[in-house]
Design a protein that fits this description.
This protein is α/β, with parallel strands linked by helices. It has a single domain (35-206), classed as NagB/RpiA/CoA transferase-like (Rossmann fold, 3-Layer(aba) Sandwich). Helix content is 25%, strand content 22%. The strands form 3 sheets. Strands 6-3-2-1-7-10-12-13 form an 8-stranded mixed sheet. Strand 4 and strand 5 form a beta hairpin. Helix 2 packs parallel to helix 4 (73-81). It starts with 13 loop residues before the first helix and ends with a strand. The model has no long low-confidence stretch (mean pLDDT 94). It binds ligand FFO and adenosine-5'-triphosphate. The site of adenosine-5'-triphosphate has 14 residues, from helix 5. This is 5-formyltetrahydrofolate cyclo-ligase. It comes from Demequina lignilytica. Its EC number is 6.3.3.2. It is an enzyme of class 6 (ligase). Keywords: ATP-binding, Ligase, Magnesium, Metal-binding, Nucleotide-binding.
């Protein structure tokens, strides 16, 4: 056997490394109790609402969380009560990217098992994201350089192309999911778009250079 042969010792490709990390983090997320997820949801709400960019915003895009993701229900409702227009991802045929306007908690419905909840109103096209002053995205992990690990569909990497250039992109993660880019960088591929900030239950942290 030579070291250069069939390479079972080679470094994993970024997509393989991502798949492994996703499996580990999803498993960890399943351990978190309902009570802790509930407490985290209130903290996410409070930290996001305190951001100056959010205080000045008239339109904010927020994902509608699935059960083990950082919970956005209280945040979405609080923005709505403030009179902020909230844009929520809508998946069209073939996971086509679009947006719906939040109209109240009863209007957010899971259309199929495992799918994120969606509002019932009109399907607004992908360019609608340009109306958002702040964009809150899901992440399984981020690193301090702003690299984001998502669910692996590439949905947000494609959607964010339509964002207003100066709209901050804010990821929500649990506390142990922020990594030091100097010692523990996330795998990054050329299409990966960075995020500007991460909110954990502990607070808000600026990312990037
Ligand atoms: N809450 C939330 N919304 C989001 C994202 C996300 O990560 N979280 N996305 C981030 O990119 C985009 C789309 N994400 C999707 C997530 C799952 C499926 C999906 O097809 N799920 C499977 C069930 C999987 C399961 O059981 O866990 C299915 O419907 O068959 C599609 C899109 C936009 N909206
Ligand atoms: N802008 C893009 N154009 C073409 N393909 C892309 C683009 N962004 C991502 N993809 C493809 O989508 C797949 C998943 O990408 P990636 O692993 O970066 O997803 P993710 O950012 O973790 O997921 P998500 O944004 O859905 O949470 C990859 O196969 C990638 O090649």
């Amino acid at each position: 056997m030579t070291p250069m042969s069939e390479g079972h010792l080679r470094a994993p490709e970024p997509d393989e490394a991502k798949a492994h990390l996703r499996a580990v983090i999803r498993r960890e997320r399943l351990q978190r109790s309902e009570r802790r997820r509930h407490e985290a949801a209130a903290a996410f709400r409070d930290h996001v609402l305190a951001l100056p960019a959010v205080q000045a915003a008239s339109c904010v895009s927020v994902y509608a969380s699935r059960p083990h993701e950082p919970s956005t229900g209280p945040l979405i409702e609080a923005l709505h009560v403030r009179g902020v227009r909230v844009l929520i991802p809508l998946l069209g045929d073939g996971l086509q990217r679009g947006w719906g306007v939040y109209r109240g908690v009863d209007d957010l419905v899971e259309r199929a098992p495992g799918r994120p909840p969606e509002p019932s109103g009109d399907f607004l096209g992908s360019v609608t994201l340009a109306e958002a002053d702040v964009i809150v995205v899901p992440a399984l992990a981020v690193d301090t350089s702003g690299t984001r690990l998502g669910q692996g569909g590439g949905w947000y990497d494609r959607a964010l192309v339509d964002a207003k250039p100066d709209a901050p992109v804010v990821a929500l993660t649990f506390s142990g999911e922020v990594r030091d880019a100097a010692t523990d960088p996330l795998p990054r591929e050329p299409h990966d778009l960075g995020v500007d900030m991460v909110i954990t239950p502990e607070g808000a942290f600026e990312l990037g250079a």
